[in-house]
Design a protein that fits this description.
CATH class of the largest domain: Mainly Alpha
Number of domains: 2
Structural class: alpha+beta
Order of helices and strands: EHEHEEHHHHHH
Largest sheet: 4 strands, mixed
Strand order of the largest sheet: 2-1-3-4
Helix content: 40-55%
Amino acid sequence: MADLTLYHASPSRSSIVRWMLEELGEPYDVHLLDLTKSEQSSPEYLAINPMGKVPALRHGDAIITEAAAICTYLADEFPQAKLNVPVGDPRRGSYLKWLFFSPSCIEPAVTDRAFPRKEAPRRGMLSYGDFDTVMNVTAKAVEPGPYLMGDQFTAADVIVGSMLRWGTMFNLLPKRPEFMAYVGRLEQRPALQRATALDAKLATAQAS
């Protein structure tokens, strides 16, 4: 039994953490949850994540939830994988910003655009401000490449990259050349290819 266990459902946000785990290169177990059977709402799982959603990660006696928090935790716990920017490095501030920019700005901006409110909220009431600003800031960050932190691929690329892959795949994001080039670079990573193949195999098994 591995020290790391991913509570996983596919497709879902837990695929983000599966990609991170593949990048990490450490052995891990997968505890599958069938969302169609509401297994995420069982008392056993609610004891792990009271929010009743995936992903959740168990590492020894520690339980971590929320994809960005999990990826941050894993990058710091396993520094040999070089997926973090360590404390003391002046680049860490930018690295942390991008880790949390996706769930706090990109995702809500995309969701609000996909499912518009009946009345437009005031800009100052939104965590992200406005959609166009979020897109412009993100495009400027990924354009120089190859990754958000330059030549170093980090957990921030897993978080931001997962959102951009999903958003462009389902036409929820503008297919700006900066986004498409960045996503194309990510698609070449063997760890992402492995994670995608593993989840595709799961989807096939669940459908049969």
